[in-house]
Design goal:
The protein contains eight helices and 40 strands. By secondary structure, the protein is mostly beta strands. It is elongated and about 125 Å long.
């Protein structure tokens, strides 16, 4: 472990359980709470036990235990002996006593109910460190547990990683009651003399039957807008109460402390690509795969690793024959990779499309040049999303570089189908809740006034069109585990130059993004952060998060970013740098999931 500051070294053993950065984060809280609690006084001679010889020296005692060397003062200078006795400078033998086994102990019972869920448990964690070290210094046993848990299965001795993890998981929706406290008092035999016993939780614990004679630590979270601190009131059973205010660490560190504070951050390995240069990437229609375009015309689909320690799966790759030009790429959970390529005036699908008779190869034709989808040079990975009818027929949709929406219906018996243009000015297309959805930009009305953007829901007898109160129309679908729009999940649409609107289940939230920043997606960081917008800094390296709260920086790339995108199927976004480095970033763990760099050439 990194050397701790001198003020934290008394708790070095307990803090060594945590990663270095979290140990330094918890350290100041531990030091402040230790000063408020004070030490546990060791047993004095009056507390007795059976005499067992002598143990050192003391300045007080009867003269029959006075050191023999001190009697020399009586022979040489009796006045000096009297003076030393008056000022307490004489040395006496200190008797030792055999203490009863198990007589000294510290008992800590923590409320794991709804009153203390969330941030107050960070104070609980720091208190456990303080009280464990306090008991160790006094030679006392340390016993602790969660009030709502059963004493038979949740009584812990000392601080260890397994017991702390078990306590972190012991959250309860049941408030602490006198029944819980009585069960612990009986199990630990605290009925008559609680001794050094502590109740940790809200102020209401003092009103429980059986709390008499026990020391308490009351933890509360101020109900103030923007407050990020805890108030801790230490109320020993026989001493004056003290109050401490703990300023909490940043939200990301709070989340780590409450979820798994013992997990060391793992840096994802760096993979090299030696055969092909990556020119472009995109997330699949369902947001679960990353689709990669290479300079040789091949396309690969790879599952996003679920952690930095996960083995990177081998990508599924398709190499189109010479003379074909890739137009769109998609991925289906059942069916795999699809690559639509143009060959002359026709379009061929690499990968099989599901029909009522099974999977089949498909060719597509267009009625006119106006209805021909096209891609931009170097940006070949147009989105291709899928939807399946109950009878097994698979429909596909794609959005081309001119913002046209095309429908690829199931093929006939001859394996041929037609590409059909179904809408214009489409700014985003994705698969949400197993249905294709898209957003259209506002179009000029008959009176010349601009109308608002619309959300289209496909996969129904007739497309469902839902108005969106946004007058620009540039849109991004994003990932949110809950609270998103009923049909679109997390959706952000530009309303004006700087104003973006987040469409959620409870209404619309407006987010301001400076025009110099380039929006690349909508994201939902871990709670308590609200959903917001992911944007690239004008320096083309740093990613920022904009929401109702103050803007904050998420991560910075190693070089200029040429492309960035956020998944709407999982809390991940990625970027491609000018040097060819591809990085996937996990929003929940705040770490790199995957990094691939081109192999250097001599």
């Amino acid at each position: 472990m990194t050397a701790l500051p001198p003020i934290l070294r008394p708790w070095a053993m307990q803090l060594s359980l945590f990663p270095d950065d979290l140990a330094l984060t918890l350290g100041p809280h531990v030091a402040r709470l230790s000063a408020a609690l004070g030490g546990l006084r060791p047993r004095g001679e009056a507390e007795g036990g059976e005499p067992q010889g002598y143990d050192g020296l003391t300045r007080r005692g009867p003269f029959d235990r006075l050191l023999v060397s001190e009697w020399l003062w009586a022979l040489d200078t009796p006045d000096e002996l009297v003076r030393r006795a008056a000022f307490g400078e004489l040395s006496f033998l200190k008797p030792a006593f055999r203490q009863p086994q198990g007589a000294r102990r510290t008992v800590v019972l923590l409320d794991a109910g709804p009153d203390q869920l969330g941030l107050p448990r960070i104070a609980h964690l720091a208190l456990l460190i303080v009280l464990a070290r306090r008991a160790e210094a006094a030679g006392a046993a340390f016993i602790w547990g969660a009030l709502q848990s059963s004493p038979e299965s949740a009584t812990h001795s000392g601080l260890e990683v397994p017991s702390l993890l078990k306590w972190l998981e012991a959250r309860s929706i049941e408030p602490a009651s006198a029944r819980h406290l009585t069960a612990w008092r009986e199990a630990l035999e605290l009925q008559h003399a609680p001794g050094d016993a502590w109740l940790v939780g809200a102020a209401r614990l003092s009103r429980l039957a059986g709390a008499e004679g026990m020391s308490r630590v009351e933890v509360s979270e101020p109900m103030e807008p923007g407050a990020h601190r805890l108030t801790v009131d230490v109320r020993p059973a026989s001493q004056v109460a003290r109050s401490v205010v703990l300023e909490l660490p940043p939200p990301d560190d709070c989340i780590r402390l409450l979820r798994n504070p013992f997990e060391r951050r793992t840096v994802a390995p760096v993979w090299t690509r030696k055969d092909r240069r990556l020119t472009h990437f995109a997330f699949s229609g369902d947001g679960r795969r990353i689709l990669m375009h290479h300079s040789d015309g091949s396309v690969a689909a790879m599952a996003v690793p679920h952690s930095p320690r996960a083995t990177v799966p081998k990508p599924r790759r398709v190499q189109v024959p010479g003379g074909q030009h890739v137009i769109a790429v998609g991925w289906r959970y059942s069916g795999g990779l699809l690559v639509l390529a143009r060959q002359g005036n026709d379009y061929v699908m690499h990968g099989q499309v599901r029909t009522s008779a099974g999977f089949r190869k498909v060719h597509y034709q267009v009625a006119s040049e106006v209805d021909r989808p096209e891609s931009l040079p170097g940006m070949q990975s147009l989105p291709l999303v899928s939807w399946q009818e109950p009878n097994g027929q698979e429909h596909l949709w794609l959005k081309d570089a001119q913002d046209g929406l095309f429908h690829l219906p199931p093929p006939g018996r001859d394996g041929v189908s037609s590409l059909l243009r179904v809408d214009e000015k489409v700014s985003a297309l994705a698969e949400v809740l197993s249905k294709p959805v898209y957003v259209t930009r506002p179009q000029a009305g008959g009176t010349g006034r601009a109308i608002i953007a619309r959300l289209g829901v496909l996969g129904e007898a007739a497309p469902r069109m839902i108005p969106l109160n946004a007058r620009h129309g540039e849109a991004y679908f994003g990932y949110s585990p809950s609270g998103g729009h009923a049909y679109a999940g997390l959706l952000v649409v530009r309303h004006q130059e700087e104003n973006w609107r987040l469409f959620l289940d409870m209404g619309v939230t407006q987010v301001v993004v400076p025009p110099a920043y380039r929006v690349v997606g909508a994201v939902q960081p871990p709670a308590p952060s609200p959903p917001g917008v992911l944007a690239l800094d004008p320096d083309r390296r740093t990613f920022h998060f904009f929401s109702e709260q103050a803007p904050r920086t998420l991560v910075a790339a190693t070089d200029e970013v040429v492309q960035a995108a956020a998944s709407h199927g999982q809390p991940v976004f990625g970027w491609l740098t000018k040097t060819g480095e591809l990085v996937l970033w996990d929003l929940m763990e705040q770490t790199v999931l995957y990094r691939a760099v081109p192999e250097s050439t001599p």
